[in-house]
Each structure stands twice: as C-alpha cells, then as structure tokens.
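User: Let's play a game. I give you a shape written as tokens, and you guess the letters that built it. Ready? Here's round one.
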C-alpha cells in the first residue's frame, strides 16, 4: 500500500471528552446530593470525624499543638479570596507571556467551577456536621465542600493546562504533583477542622477533578482547531 493510500491517524474526540467530563461532574454532585436530601447517611462520615478529636474531648484536636494552626493556614489556600487571586494573577501572567488560550482556559475553569459549586450548595443545603466541635466559623451549606471542589477546579485546571505548554517532562510531573498535593491537603484540613463531612470533601474532590479534566480536554480541542491558525499558544513537542 502506498503512503498516499495509508489511512490518516484519527484525532481523539477532545471536545466530546471535555463536555462529558463536565457533565459527569455535575451529574455526580446531583446524584449524591439527591441521596443526601433523601436522608442517606454514610457510616464512615461520623467515624472519620471522631478520629480527628481526642477521645472524650470533642473540642480538642488530635495531633501536636502546631497542627491546628497548620491546618488553618492550609485551609485558607482553598478560600475564595486566595483562589480568586490565583486565577487572576495566573491568567495575567499567562497573558503577558502571550499564552492567550491557556489564560482563557484558566479563567474558564476557575470561574465556572466555583459558580457551579455555589449553586449546588444552595440547592442541597446540607447541614454542617455537629459530631465534633468546629475549629473555625462557617456559614454556608456543607455539600459539596467548596474548599475541596473549588481548589481542585482551580489548581488542577491551572496545572493541567500549563502541562500543555510546558516542554520538559520533569516540570509537567512537578506541576501535577504539586497541584494534587495541595488539593488533598486543603480537603483534609476541612475534615480536621470539623466543618465538613468526609463525603462532602470526597464529592468536592471528584467534582473539581472532573471539572479540571473537562477544561484540559477542551483545551486540547481548541489548540488543535484554532491555535495554529490564529497564532495562539500551541502544544509543545513532547519528545523532551
């Protein structure tokens, strides 16, 4: 068979993958939220929370004295103010570097994810856990964990779209590992502080991760379709 007759390689359906991931994120929160609204309880929720406190002293956190302050510092990294700054400053830096498409993807993932979480909180309105004392003041609904979901949507989206323009493999691995570690720490801090059921955090992590994957896949589609034609930031050579 001649080269001319050889079948062309098929491109992955990135747009379909991206939209499917975004839809799966919304569907997951809806299904779990509906179950919670119907009175579903998860046995591990109470058990995990109780391990966060000294036996017989629900206001005394487990671990060394410095751990409480460390958890307060970590949880702040998933707050609305910090995440807004990360999205704005990250997108601004990318625009200065002329990575226009990557900047737009960071903005898209970092804005739409928290907006969807805010709507879910209002729809399902789960009460905060009262199994152990809270170590911080909270006012919004419990499901899904906004800190967990939003940090995953922001930090993982940022890492995944940066991976598309970073050339060295070691740098890509570092970005993904750092973002994942940060998201895990923020979610764990919410349980330690007693303000979220573990199921809130798990749902938040799952939502945020799917949201990030969705924008990562959409980014692949946009690069293949528009980047070469319009001079936007293109995907680097992965042979490095």
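Assistant: Ready! My guess for every position:
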């Amino acid at each position: 068979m001649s080269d001319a007759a050889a079948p062309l390689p098929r491109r992955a359906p990135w747009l379909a993958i991206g939209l499917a991931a975004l839809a799966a994120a919304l569907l997951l929160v809806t299904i779990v939220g509906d179950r919670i609204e119907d009175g579903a309880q998860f046995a591990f929720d109470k058990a995990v929370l109780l391990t966060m406190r000294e036996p017989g002293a629900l206001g005394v956190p487990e671990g060394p004295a410095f751990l409480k302050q460390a958890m307060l510092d970590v949880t702040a990294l998933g707050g609305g103010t910090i995440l807004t700054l990360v999205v704005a400053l990250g997108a601004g830096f990318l625009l200065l570097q002329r990575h226009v498409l990557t900047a737009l993807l960071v903005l898209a993932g970092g804005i739409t994810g928290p907006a969807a979480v805010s709507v879910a909180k209002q729809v399902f309105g789960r009460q905060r856990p009262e199994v152990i004392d809270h170590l911080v003041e909270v006012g919004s609904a419990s499901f899904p964990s906004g800190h967990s979901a939003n940090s995953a949507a922001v930090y993982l989206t940022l890492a995944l779209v940066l991976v598309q323009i970073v050339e060295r493999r070691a740098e890509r691995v570092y970005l993904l590992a750092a973002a994942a570690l940060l998201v895990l720490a923020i979610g764990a801090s919410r349980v330690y502080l007693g303000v979220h059921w573990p199921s809130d955090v798990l749902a938040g992590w799952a939502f945020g991760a799917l949201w990030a994957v969705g924008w990562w896949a959409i980014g692949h589609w946009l690069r293949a379709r528009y980047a070469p034609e319009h001079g936007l930031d293109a995907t680097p050579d992965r042979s490095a």
